[in-house]
Amino acid sequence: MSADRPFFITTPIYYVNDLPHLGHAYTTVACDALARFMRLDGRRVKFLTGTDEHGQKVEQSARAAGISPQEFVDRISAEFRDVTRLLDVSNDDFIRTTEPRHTRSVQALWQELERRGEIYLGRFAGWYSVRDEAFYDEEELIGGKAPTGAEVEWLEEDNYFFRLSAWQDRLLAYYEANPEAVAPRSRRNEVVSFVRSGLKDLSISRTSFTWGVPVPGDPKHVVYVWLDALTNYITALGYPDINNEDFITLWPTTLHVVGKDILRFHTVYWPAFLMAAGLAPPHRVFANGWWTVEGRKMSKSLGNVVPPKQLVDAYGVDPVRYFMLRELPFGSDGDFSHRAIVGRLNSDLANDFGNLAQRVLVMINRDCDAAVPEPGPFDAADQRLLGTAGDLLETVRNHMVEQAFHVALESIWRVVAEANRYVDEQAPWVLRRSDPVRMRTVLYTLAETIRHLAILAQPFVPGSATKLLDQLSVAAGSRDFAALGASPLVAGTHLPKPAGIFPRFVEAPTA
Length: 511
Ligand code: MSP
Prior knowledge:
Layout: E1 7-15, H1 22-40, E2 45-52, H2 56-65, H3 69-86, E3 93-96, H4 100-115, E4 119-129, E5 134-136, E6 153-162, H5 168-177, E7 182-183, H6 185-196, E8 202-203, E9 205-206, E10 222-223, H7 225-230, H8 232-235, H9 245-250, E11 254-259, H10 263-276, E12 284-288, E13 291-293, H11 308-315, H12 317-327, E14 334-336, H13 338-367, H14 380-400, H15 405-426, H16 428-434, H17 436-457, H18 462-471, H19 482-486
Parallel strand pairs: 1-2, 1-11, 2-3, 7-12, 11-12, 13-14
Antiparallel strand pairs: 4-5, 4-6, 6-8, 9-10
Bound molecules: 5'-O-[(L-methionyl)-sulphamoyl]adenosine.
């Protein structure tokens, strides 16, 4: 993905049969960090999230709640929208599959597929899992259940089918020609061998319930919820109008971030639907891993499903964002535990970064008349630190284009550690009496390093980084990556009174 191209980034759209939880928050936060990074890097970005509101599962949940499907989806979708604000997420659009723009788009895609001879009417007889909203072959079942553990039911209906079997070779050619299209690499191998093993035509309509987009020309059928849901990505770019500015510039320079459980839908069905409709497949699909909580799978029956609000109330939004992206390689599974987040919060955020900023800003406030100090000549140690800070953007960028968030953060924190070592070595508090010019040079070097760190930390911990940049009196227009090299701190600029950025987490005393 070239660095200067416009960039379209999407989360999965979340099913509204469930309330938002930690797992949903994870993908959304990761996409947000990337979207913010790309914007700060000068790229035009569209960042999309939203809710998946049709299908049998949602219809059943509405019935269980004793309200109409529409009332039900309105209520839960609003909860997902609230979570984006709670997590400081900068999405440009929030799509709901019950919106008229989406119905129009799904029906247009259907008609295009039909026009091109990719759809036929047939009889489906097979296993369906409502929880997964997926069809399974007899051979895939394990002990009478879906491979995911979900219940399956026998289904026999007249369905429309998509000629997926005809797309096997073209899908394999697409993976071959686009080695970056499915990530991480282990997932790519998984997808390629699945497609190599042969594809069957896919049922893409249902008649046994009505909560969905009616099939054009045959409204007894509703469109299969996955064909409906996947189309959201192009609805948001104005499909079926493919000549509008958004579609032209943002498709297919796209990154779909999805959970590992829904990779097949995004890397097999979706590119096949698109190619069959004469559209380009997306540039990249990245599958993130799953969190357990305190060592256990999250589930309603265990009663350990963690709402994002509970996390934000306990730890604060930025520590939660930081932890999620720092703790694990994106793509791997991991465990979310109180101990682990408090460890990161207190060591990486409060001790390492927070203390560095606080120490430096307090000294500047006290010993330099609360203004950016005028530096004298820089010695080798100063130049080394400033050089390391100056090189950081390129390093972080290289990791971000690979969605290696944890390595990007690791490299930022390596500079935090270096700056902390430099403070200890230079001991500006000693220089205060012995060599005030040198003290000012050291404090300037540190403040300038902290400016770099704060600018680069914005995608991950936006609120805290903003506070820090405010404390450095960095102008609102000088906070993007172009300002890193172009707008160093100017001696004499007044700085406000410093205040801690990352408070330590103190355990409440147990009764
Ligand atoms: N509606 C479909 C997606 C359609 S996209 C065109 C869907 N929705 S979902 O709400 O069930 O899941 C949304 C995402 O949450 C998935 O990517 C899934 O992997 C992710 N997660 C659900 N539980 C999770 C964890 N415990 N940990 C990390 N992510 C998890 O699938």
